[in-house]
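In this supplementary section we document a worked example of the pipeline. Step one takes a protein sequence of length 230 as its only input; no multiple sequence alignment statistics are reported here. Step two produces a three-dimensional model, which step three serialises into structure tokens for compact storage. The input and output of this example are shown verbatim.
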Amino acid sequence: MDPQTLPASELALYNAIKTRYSVTFEPLRIREHLLHLLQFTDLEQVLDGKDPLKDVSAFPFWIKLWEAAIVLSEFIAGMPCEQPTSVLELGAGLGAPGLTAAAAGYTVTLSDYEEMILEVERINAAASRLTNMRFAMLDWRNPPEMERYDVILGAEILFREEFFEPLLGVLRKALKPGGVIYLAHDIKRRSLEPFLKMAEQEYRIAASQRKLKSLEQDKIILLTRLQPRH
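The serialised model returned by step three reads:
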């Protein structure tokens, strides 16, 4: 992917990021869809002296393409979009599931909590030649008035238990009646079970396991569907 082919506004964002960080575009093929994701190649630059071993919240989880995001992308790519369907991806990071949904014909909003993340998402959308997308700043602890969506996606968004209640609040505000939520997480994620126990009071939950083969080791991803009880 040649960055110089980006539209002017996204090229300006890319050039601004490139002055501060070592980055490169990596292709990601999800079925018939080819995405281009901006990857940060020097983690130390992004950490900027913070020590994630002392404070896990200092780790920029958003810069990694998680296996769960690939599994969720594959799942969305296999769902036919037969009518106008709106999708919100929460904690989108690089945005692979939402970008895949847009490539498959859905109307997509990517959301996250930091301006630079949204800039990367805009770049990734432009690099992947996707236009039916919007981008929203979303702090789960202080959500704005929100429109409602048919589908909500989230991959590896359950890192910290203090965000479970705020997340459930966002889901209540953002999901249309009759809508559906799809989450994907590494099955070893310890925060997964306590969140689902909280969520089952409001949602009917179904889950299936997907194996993603890796050079290092196979990953088992739990794909979870949540549908409101009322």
